[in-house]
């Protein structure tokens, strides 16, 4: 599985436009941005991160899949009703962390993202 990190909604849109025909499956993790010391403001994101990393590693042999980590901004930016990830009709992110399979209605939200079995089901779903 290939991995990319983006730091804005516009960067995510651009990346998906470039990559959507290259990969059969695209997954997007929407997560709280990190400070200069590498710490996220989002406790659920901190809890999910090691599970997500471990699970993605299991799928490293899937070259036709892409996993995008999209940082949604600092806490105040994320909490704004105008946050681009919240208002985007393509993503409709209501909470972080959220992991979705691009182009489908399949998604995991908040504590579900820290559940390895749920994450594996999402990644394996055809």
UniProtKB/TrEMBL annotation:
One MF annotation (Gene Ontology) recorded for this entry: protein-disulfide reductase [NAD(P)H] activity
InterPro entries, per database record: Thioredoxin-like_sf, TXNDC17-like, TXNDC17_dom
Transmembrane segments annotated in the record for this chain: none
Pfam families: TXD17-like_Trx
Domain Thioredoxin residues, every copy: 7-125
GO CC annotation: cytosol
Top-level taxon of origin: Eukaryota
Protein family membership: Belongs to the thioredoxin family.
Official protein name in the record: Thioredoxin domain-containing protein 17
């Amino acid at each position: 599985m290939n991995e990319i990190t983006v730091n804005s909604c516009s960067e995510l849109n651009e990346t998906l436009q470039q990559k959507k025909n290259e990969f059969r499956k695209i997954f997007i993790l929407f997560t709280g941005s990190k400070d200069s010391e590498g710490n996220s403001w989002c406790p659920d994101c901190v809890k999910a991160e090691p599970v997500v990393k471990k699970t993605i590693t299991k799928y490293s042999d899937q070259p036709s899949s892409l996993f995008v980590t999209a940082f949604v901004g600092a806490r105040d930016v994320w909490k704004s009703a105008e946050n681009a990830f919240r208002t985007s009709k393509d993503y409709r992110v209501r909470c972080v962390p959220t992991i979705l399979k691009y182009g489908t209605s399949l998604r995991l939200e908040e504590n579900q993202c820290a559940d390895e079995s749920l994450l594996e089901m999402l990644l394996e779903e055809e």
